[in-house]
Sequence to fold (290 residues):
Amino acid sequence: MPELPDLAVVVDAFHAALAGRPVIGVEVPGPLSVRGTPTELTALVLQRLTMVRRRGKFVTFQLDRDRVVVNAMLTGRFQLAVPATKRPQSTAVVLGFGPRDRPPRDAARWTRGAAWLPADAEPVEVRYRDPSQMGKVYVLPAGVDRPVPGLDADQGPDADDPALSLETWRERIRRHPGELKALLRNQAFVAGIGNAYSDEILHAARLSPFRRRASLAPEEVDALYAAARATLAHASGVLRERVPPTFETQVRDFLAVHLREGEPCPRCGTRISQVSSRGESTSFCRGCQR
Ligand SMILES: [Zn+2]
Fold:
């Protein structure tokens, strides 16, 4: 499942590659993934893309008038490609973009001059593929009130939001008494963290995923905040180097504990434990997480 660091890289890259380009075509090979009418999809054509941004695990393509919001869920992935190349299996939506005069001035610094950036004079496609069809692509025309479950009102602040201070973290966490793994994944607490990065953050904080928030000492609450910030920032840095040009590949091989059952803990050497429930795995170290 794409989480905050994965999507942060995609959003930076797609904004740099696409902002200023007009939509020149929309294709929907997988209509089950789309919330929107054929007329609404056709009306996207000739609108210029102004911004690609992220909120929690949602990616928004903002056009002149309308917007397209994607919740990739478990298996949704994005690809940036030249139109002539073969489309991957299970491609659900293709947004075709025409040439532009110049790249946006507000492109993320790390994207500037990157080899994977398509030439401004050439067309480019964003392809969204989703083998499980669990994810959704919402077409949101201006003036149409179409609900996007889980977006905005239901979300806490982004886990990497500079405005999420330690004070705010301490205050918000009081409302959530349950187990720490579920707490970190609760998008109403903070947005953007899923199964993989909750494991990584708890390992960095030396806290067991099964500890209850109500049992935490004040310094442990603070350690969890520091671990969340550091873990997400580190991952985003690694992925900026590793992910382009194949944005659809989810790079996770640098993680410390997630899905590393039986391997030595990088901090204390104890073999990493894994517990599965409802098809999802929690990985942690019994040696150094309390
Ligand atoms: Zn350990």
The pocket of zinc ion is lined by residues 265, 267-268, 270, 285, 287-288 (CB under 6 Å). The mean pLDDT is 96. The chain has six helices and eleven strands.
